[in-house]
């Protein structure tokens, strides 16, 4: 049996290769036309805006060339055509009113914060293996398997596991899991509030996502209690939605901010390891132990126009793809008990193929929204030619480097980063943030895309109007994308998770 860490959902951004070498499907081989249509449908919903902009530009250009005699002539014409003037004015006012009422509000990312665990939680490879051996729960085959996964994982020697996992034997409990959740969430939120100077009472919307730890009261209630948030806050707790839940939480906050005016939304993304360590010998359930590490993020969003000047980014698009209607996709990441009654997450051998299908659907839908017209025409024309004349002709895969300056690919595993780099024809610098996040912090589930964005900021690479693509996978099976645009040259916020080590990165990761 061979293995290779790959991404998955369920809070587990990794996978296992069993019996066969499985890779993401080659996107050049097949593109489904219905998902192209879906992307163009999204584009058409903004058709009124797209047609009004050139019309207004033409009117302004024409008006700029008018002299006083032209204006006088126009006035005389309008003076003797009062009915026409009233009709045109009514249409103009009505159209403008509908446009301004129905257009979506801009959503701004004021700032975000990623939790940096204390040095006492650091776990080295030899320490990890020694503790695994001393628990007495793993046979020699499982220990050898975990050692191979660590060596091939792309993780470094400075990642973190929770306090309960440092004990011999480990002491997972509800109390310890609560302590981990509090440490991560409050650490990220304290830094966020300190950097933005926002008072907790000003928060109108709270969305928390954590897949595998859902206590009562909820994690969102814990935050409300800790920071004494106001009584009419709209709070939500998302569970079981995997590593892509961070984008889902952003999408939910976005929709709420479209309805509730002049307010702030906080999105907290994390995963809890303490009670979800697998102590059995089923190899497809052992990989999360090797890749998952402590981490979390807090993001402050605003729909206030006055916040534009101090915000870092504007949310441009969110595209979500769900493959749960397919039985194989639904069960490819499945939490269950093994034959010995020990709970873990079972990973299907079809995981990579299913992840690739979800990714292909997502980017095919996203393409018409973000790609230049030239790339869309090339893609669409070659697709039509393939359908009409030559079924074996490879479709043109658009160059997404023309749409985005930065890529934040979920750091779920080394294999998926490799495959996305290859299939999307990216350069090493485009996946650097993902690789270095995996090396420094491991797989932090839904928060990994925020550690990656923090890396880009810490390197001083984020310039005004740069576009960022965040993409993540989740159980179900889901693939979700968020697109942001920088509103200024973005500098790292105080107490960035990379503050004490960015000068050491990037590092070389041996194959």
Automatic annotation (TrEMBL):
<dbReference type="GO" id="GO:0009922">
    <property type="term" value="F:fatty acid elongase activity"/>
</dbReference>
<dbReference type="GO" id="GO:0016020">
    <property type="term" value="C:membrane"/>
</dbReference>
<feature type="domain" description="FAE">
    <location>
        <begin position="100"/>
        <end position="388"/>
    </location>
</feature>
<feature type="active site">
    <location>
        <position position="406"/>
    </location>
</feature>
<feature type="transmembrane region" description="Helical">
    <location>
        <begin position="82"/>
        <end position="101"/>
    </location>
</feature>
<feature type="active site">
    <location>
        <position position="322"/>
    </location>
</feature>
<feature type="active site">
    <location>
        <position position="243"/>
    </location>
</feature>
<dbReference type="InterPro" id="IPR012392">
    <property type="entry name" value="3-ktacl-CoA_syn"/>
</dbReference>
<feature type="transmembrane region" description="Helical">
    <location>
        <begin position="40"/>
        <end position="61"/>
    </location>
</feature>
<keyword id="KW-0472">Membrane</keyword>
<keyword id="KW-0812">Transmembrane</keyword>
<feature type="active site">
    <location>
        <position position="443"/>
    </location>
</feature>
<keyword id="KW-0808">Transferase</keyword>
<dbReference type="InterPro" id="IPR013747">
    <property type="entry name" value="ACP_syn_III_C"/>
</dbReference>
<keyword id="KW-1133">Transmembrane helix</keyword>
<comment type="pathway">
    <text>Lipid metabolism; fatty acid biosynthesis.</text>
</comment>
<dbReference type="Pfam" id="PF08541">
    <property type="entry name" value="ACP_syn_III_C"/>
</dbReference>
<dbReference type="Pfam" id="PF08392">
    <property type="entry name" value="FAE1_CUT1_RppA"/>
</dbReference>
<feature type="active site">
    <location>
        <position position="410"/>
    </location>
</feature>
<feature type="active site">
    <location>
        <position position="439"/>
    </location>
</feature>
<comment type="similarity">
    <text>Belongs to the thiolase-like superfamily. Chalcone/stilbene synthases family.</text>
</comment>
<keyword id="KW-0012">Acyltransferase</keyword>
<dbReference type="InterPro" id="IPR013601">
    <property type="entry name" value="FAE1_typ3_polyketide_synth"/>
</dbReference>
<dbReference type="InterPro" id="IPR016039">
    <property type="entry name" value="Thiolase-like"/>
</dbReference>
<dbReference type="GO" id="GO:0006633">
    <property type="term" value="P:fatty acid biosynthetic process"/>
</dbReference>
<feature type="domain" description="Beta-ketoacyl-[acyl-carrier-protein] synthase III C-terminal">
    <location>
        <begin position="405"/>
        <end position="485"/>
    </location>
</feature>
<protein>
    <recommendedName>
        <fullName>3-ketoacyl-CoA synthase</fullName>
        <ecNumber>2.3.1.-</ecNumber>
    </recommendedName>
</protein>
């Amino acid at each position: 049996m061979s293995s290779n860490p790959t991404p998955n959902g369920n809070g587990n951004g990794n996978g296992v290769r069993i019996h066969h070498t499985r890779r993401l499907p080659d996107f050049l081989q097949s593109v489904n036309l219905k998902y192209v249509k879906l992307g163009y449908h999204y584009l058409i919903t903004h058709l009124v805006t797209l047609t009004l902009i050139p019309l207004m530009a033409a009117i302004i250009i024409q008006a700029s060339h008018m002299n006083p005699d032209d204006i006088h002539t126009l006035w005389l014409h309008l003076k003797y055509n009062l009915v026409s003037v009233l009709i045109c004015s009514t249409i103009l006012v009505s159209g403008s009113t509908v446009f301004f009422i129905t257009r979506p509000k801009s959503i701004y990312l004021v700032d975000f914060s990623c939790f940096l665990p204390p040095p006492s939680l650091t776990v080295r490879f030899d320490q990890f293996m020694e503790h695994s051996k001393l628990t007495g729960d793993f046979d020699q085959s499982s220990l050898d398997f975990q050692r191979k996964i660590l060596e091939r994982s792309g993780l470094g020697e400075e990642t973190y596991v929770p306090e309960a996992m440092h004990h011999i034997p480990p002491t997972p409990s509800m109390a310890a899991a609560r302590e981990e959740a509090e440490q991560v969430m409050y650490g990220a939120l304290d830094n966020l509030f300190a950097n933005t100077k926002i008072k907790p009472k000003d928060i109108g919307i709270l969305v928390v996502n954590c897949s595998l730890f859902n206590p009562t009261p909820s994690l969102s209630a814990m935050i409300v209690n800790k920071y004494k948030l106001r009584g009419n806050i709209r709070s939500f707790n998302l569970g079981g939605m995997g590593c892509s839940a961070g984008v889902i939480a952003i999408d939910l906050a976005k929709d709420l901010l479209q309805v509730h005016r002049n307010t702030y939304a906080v999105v907290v993304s994390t995963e809890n390891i303490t009670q979800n360590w697998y102590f059995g010998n089923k190899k497809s359930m052992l990989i999360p132990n090797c890749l998952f590490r402590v981490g979390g993020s807090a993001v402050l969003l605003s729909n206030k126009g006055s916040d534009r000047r101090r915000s870092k980014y504007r949310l441009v698009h969110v595209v979500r793809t769900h493959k749960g209607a397919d039985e194989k996709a639904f069960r490819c990441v499945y939490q269950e008990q093994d034959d010995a009654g020990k709970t873990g997450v079972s990973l299907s051998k079809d995981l990579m193929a299913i992840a690739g299908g979800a990714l292909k659907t997502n980017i095919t839908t996203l393409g018409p929204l973000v790609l230049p017209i030239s790339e869309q025409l090339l893609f669409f024309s070659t697709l039509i030619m393939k359908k009409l004349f030559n079924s074996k002709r490879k479709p043109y895969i658009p160059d997404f480097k023309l749409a985005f300056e930065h890529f934040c690919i979920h750091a779920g595993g080394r294999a998926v980063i490799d495959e996305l780099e290859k299939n999307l024809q990216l350069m090493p610098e485009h996946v650097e943030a993902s690789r270095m996040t995996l090396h420094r912090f491991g797989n932090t589930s839904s928060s990994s895309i925020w550690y990656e964005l923090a890396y880009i900021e810490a390197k001083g690479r984020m310039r005004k109007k740069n576009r960022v693509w965040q993409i993540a996978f989740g159980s179900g099976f889901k693939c979700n994308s968020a697109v942001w645009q920088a509103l200024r040259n973005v500098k790292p916020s105080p107490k960035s998770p990379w503050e004490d080590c960015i000068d050491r990165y990037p590092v070389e990761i041996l194959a």
